[in-house]
Amino acid sequence: MRAPLSWLREYVELPEGQTGRDVAAKLIAAGLEVETVERLGQGLTGPLVVGKVLAVEELTEFKKPIRWCQVDVGDANGTGEPQNLICGARNFAVGDKVVVVLPGAELPGGFKISARKTYGRVSEGMICSAAELGMSEDHDGIIVLPPEHEVGSDAIELLELVDEVLDIAVTPDRSYCLSMRGLAREAATAYGVPLRDPALIDTPAANEHGPAVEVADPVGCDRFTARAVHGVRPEARSPIWLRRRLEKAGMRPISLAVDITNYVMLELGQPLHAYDRSRLRGTIGVRRAEAGEKITTLDGAVRELDPEDLVITDERGPIGLAGVMGGAETEIADAEQDAETGEVAGTREIVVEAAHFDPVAVARTARRHRLVSEASKRFERGVDPQAASAAAQRAVDLLVLLAGASAEAGVTEVVTPGGPRTVAMAADHPDRVAGVEYGRETVVRRLQQVGCDVYGSDELTVTVPSWRPDLNDPNDLAEEVIRLEGYENLPSTLPRPPAGRGLTESQRAHRRVGRALAGEGYSEVLSYPFVGPGVFDRLLLAADDRARRTVRIVNPLSDEEPRLRTTLLPGLFAALRRNEGRGAQNVALFETGLVFHPRADGTVAVADASAGLSAERRPSSEEIAALDAALPVQPRHAAVVLSGARELDGWWGKGRQALWADAVESARTVARAVGAELRVTRGAYGPWHPGRCAALSVVVDGEEQHVGHAGELHPRVIKAFGLPAGSGAMELDLDAVERAGGRLVTAPAVSAFPVATQDVALVVGSDVPAAEVEAALREGAGELLESLRLFDLYTGEQLGGDAKSLAYALRFRAADRTLTAEEVGAAREAAVAVAAERTGAELRGV
Amino acid sequence: MSAPNKSYDPVEVAALKPEAIDQARDEALSAIAAAGDLEALQEAKIAHTGDRSPLSLANREIGALPPHAKAEAGKRVGQARGAVGKALGARKEELEAERDERVLVEEAVDVTLPGERAPRGGRHPLTTLMERIEDVFVAMGYEVAEGPEVEAEWFNFDALNIRPDHPARTMQDTFFVDAGREPADGAGTRGGSAVGESGMVLRTHTSPVQIRSLLDREPPVYVICPGKVFRTDELDATHTPVFHQVELLAVDEGLTMADLKGTLDHMVRALFGGEGMKTRLRPNYFPFTEPSAEMDMVCYVCRGESVGNPDRPCRTCSSEGWIELGGCGMVNPRVLVACGVDPEKYSGFAFGFGIERMLMFRHNVEDMRDMVEGDIRFTQPFGMEI
């Protein structure tokens, strides 16, 4: 809502010297969001005067037609002689009144005026357009004033060029502030001065002689006031003051009748509609549309109506979308002058509608037809139903005053009676909400300033004003008191929560995972969860892979990516490619986040599970459980992707490229961080190189559970996603890994007896997993084994093509004694024996 | 060694003449002093303390002296030998120290050589900033609560007093989720689901976690809800469709707006440090709080001193003195009712703000896209904590 300060002052006696910024500060403190204070006419100095065109000579020797004019500006130029002016506009004639800026003046934007030679003549100033004066964007010709304005008089005052405009973003609950009346009320309260309420005007009582109206839907429309005027002079134009107020408020002047309805709406907040009575047929009705009905609205669009749309009708059918936009059929006609007779044709009889429509009905219709109007904006948020009669009267008065119309005596008021709304509230409720002792007296005074009637002492009965549909609960009233007393005056205190337990184990684990991966050189990425359907083919997933079953977004930002991720890999791949594209060579990334799996076919939908819920009561535990069971499964995953060097070349020597092994190790890093034991076995799964893919699993409650994969990516995946050759990746279900971890660590007994070291080299088939050999050695070595480490892997011609040698360092130690050579030897032999039995390992001569 | 010669005249033994002993001592001392390295010192040692050295020879002669002369000569020779031995030791120590120093100098390296052998990692600053905020409240006794990102509309809207016709529930703001139990990879079939048909959305705020917290627990409830949220904004320098929020909810007996204000003040002091950090509340409207407010914090850079001071403009707050933080208010009693909490007995306050925005003004991030793209050059400087 744009509020000119000059207009505001009409209803509120603001202290002298208060600038727009001062008023804005007061309104902001009262809770209005004043976005800008625009200073109109800043830098404008006269002389800027009314002139009368005496003579026009058309100059034709230039590229465009130019006029050489003599304009009477009275004594404003000091001589009384006609002013010689060059003008490029053509929308005026001899005898017209125009606006002339004289030498010595300065226009907005630092444009200094002096007599200067142009088009071969000396132009002693300029005839002004609205744009040049900063009035509007209108560059179409110069301003032609109504004839009644006196030659030589000051046009700065006449055109109200100097003003300040407050642009206010009105929150949905404060609909009354979409009017000068509402803003004036706030300003009056903020300054503690009286309000001259423009809605307090005499209105005649309803009678049976007004326009015929029949409201068939009293829920959609609980009030309909109709008035009529005749004898409207079609040639009558909006006076300057009216046009200027509309322009400053951001509306374009159209025609007198339309300007008047807009003006009254801005003033009182009540949207009005004016019908050309000669175009109306029979009774005006209000009802819901019927299927198949259509309407052409004022904007020229033909709209198919929905049976939920509330419409205004006459006997032919819909003539308006109630509260949203009128129809073209009964529109006020543009004035048209007959060239021969000079007579002006146009609308001569007008029916004014001031109605109150259901906010929800208007909101839905506006949304359905994508048609947001000044009227719908107000009805959607709530209009004062009690303002309708006054608004209609105000429009009639202005039509009489400005259009020479005669008001008809008939007054139609169709009203569905509704009592005043009252709220019961303890007098100290605002105190308890704020934590401040305002006292009953202050509470009552503030509520009265808002427009409430207040009764009672400790328990207050508060009748809320008709323009405040947002005041329904004690807290609504408390807010009014607290904001008028000033949010800035609230004290600052701290509550005392019960002693806390800190983060949960899971929350701690997530932090550890992040730190561990970052410590291993991975950088965290937070990708969007949106993916396209084609991504799963590029990941080489099988047709029946679970990851292909996705949750879909109805209104995605991009039609290319309408689904939610079931894997973190596509986001990481995109980030890897982006980094590479920007010249990064060694990139290791990780992400932890939710993925989304739809529930299986046939399970209950969320919509069905929430059908019986209401905001008026707590849902039962069963209802909550049913909702949760219907939502998609949303496990937290952790994933990495890496390429380039894992260790860098440097003065110390050669570095090392990232390998499949680093990807697998990242899974172990994650598992260690959450205290889980990870099992790594040979795997094969879509995105990974079939020979370099590890399957990851954990044991939960004694059962092995598959949690993910790691290794080098499949060359076709690398190609499809444009990744560097040899890139590796890992992804696992972090929730599942967490379930396997988190137990308290049992401290080991640290023995001070000496260690006995034994190395063994075992030759096994090249397809025997090292993890199996290690497991066998561990089992065979028994309790004396303190640690075991693979320190070398050898393949070579000596061994033949299908064998490899694994060299392990075994460390033995006992808790209570120094081990003898025999004991150590026996343990080593036992280890090798089990390895031989399980994996066919043969001891290689060391 | 010769046997004692009792008839030997000491005067006749030249080697034991005091002058000779003094001379041998002086020669030894100057040779020791002149030794430039340990090898030279070794030679001097052999020459002057070895078996054939003058002092050793003199020492040997003492036995030949008559008893009355023995004591004096013994003393003289002993003193000379002692002085030489001491000088040798001292010089040896000196030369050894010199040698050691030389060797260590030779072993010197260029310690300014770079040492980073593995590329560095880093956690995303949005993650660590959320953790930092969590820590402020955990220290006060709050719990950290989490919830699903695909959420039931009842949790995201209805329970928060956001009615079915509220503008927030349109496709302009909210991502709606298809109810479709689609067959595997139904590519090409667009869902015909209308808004709200499935009853599911991508949560538009972390407020549903507040609702879940209230349903899960008996008051008093003090929770902080960090997390990812979704709105249908296109990505640009100041918007992203996927962003992060931290929301707070406190429900207890007798909580007031003053408590809300104090909690906010504490938070900005904890996050931005120092004296003079405080917040400001401005009335606003949210369906889930009543009264509601917009919250600003004093600009932590200029502390408000750039206001009306064109000589000291502040980029962080555009010389406004205040930085917009987010929304807050007293929990609307209707929300308490929807969660089965008695609004006659309990009251609560809540606030929420965007982490992206806070990261922007706390760390001078110019463009929100930097937080989305995953460029390692952006993330790495933030390290492990923020």
TrEMBL record, chain A:
UniProt keywords, alphabetically: Aminoacyl-tRNA synthetase, ATP-binding, Cytoplasm, Ligase, Magnesium, Metal-binding, Nucleotide-binding, Protein biosynthesis, RNA-binding, tRNA-binding
InterPro entries to which the protein is assigned, alphabetical: aa-tRNA-synth_II/BPL/LPL, B3/B4_tRNA-bd, DNA-bd_dom_put_sf, Fdx_antiC-bd, Fdx_antiC-bd_sf, NA-bd_OB-fold, Phe-tRNA-ligase_IIc_bsu, Phe-tRNA-ligase_IIc_bsu_bact
Residues covered by the FDX-ACB domain: 751-844
GO CC annotations, alphabetized: phenylalanine-tRNA ligase complex
Domain spans labelled TRNA-binding: 42-156
Catalytic activity line of the entry: tRNA(Phe) + L-phenylalanine + ATP = L-phenylalanyl-tRNA(Phe) + AMP + diphosphate + H(+)
Annotated Pfam families: B3_4, B5, FDX-ACB, tRNA_bind, tRNA_synthFbeta
Co-factor requirement: Mg(2+)
GO MF entries: ATP binding; magnesium ion binding; phenylalanine-tRNA ligase activity; tRNA binding
Family: Belongs to the phenylalanyl-tRNA synthetase beta subunit family. Type 1 subfamily.
Known partners and oligomeric status: Tetramer of two alpha and two beta subunits.
This protein's name: Phenylalanine--tRNA ligase beta subunit
UniProtKB/TrEMBL annotation, chain B:
Residues bound to Mg(2+): E290
Molecular function terms from GO: ATP binding; magnesium ion binding; phenylalanine-tRNA ligase activity; tRNA binding
Localization (cell): Cytoplasm
Coiled coil regions, renumbered to chain: none
Domain of life: Bacteria
UniProt-listed InterPro entries: aa-tRNA-synth_II, aa-tRNA-synth_II/BPL/LPL, Phe-tRNA-synth_IIc_asu, Phe-tRNA_ligase_II_N, Phe_tRNA_ligase_alpha1_bac, Phenylalanyl-tRNA_Synthase, tRNA-bd_arm
Classification via PROSITE patterns: AA_TRNA_LIGASE_II
SUPFAM superfamilies referenced in this protein's UniProt entry, alphabetically: Class II aaRS and biotin synthetases, tRNA-binding arm
Keywords, in A-Z order: Aminoacyl-tRNA synthetase, ATP-binding, Cytoplasm, Ligase, Magnesium, Metal-binding, Nucleotide-binding, Protein biosynthesis
E.C. number(s) listed in UniProt: 6.1.1.20
Catalytic activity, reaction form: tRNA(Phe) + L-phenylalanine + ATP = L-phenylalanyl-tRNA(Phe) + AMP + diphosphate + H(+)
GO biological process annotation, one example: phenylalanyl-tRNA aminoacylation
Cofactor: Mg(2+)
Aminoacyl-transfer RNA synthetases class-II family profile domain location: 127-381
Cofactor detail note: Binds 2 magnesium ions per tetramer.
Enzyme class at the top of the EC tree: ligase
GO cellular component: a single term: cytoplasm
Subunit structure: Tetramer of two alpha and two beta subunits.
Entry similarity comment: Belongs to the class-II aminoacyl-tRNA synthetase family. Phe-tRNA synthetase alpha subunit type 1 subfamily.
Protein name in UniProt: Phenylalanine--tRNA ligase alpha subunit
Organism of origin: Streptomyces tardus
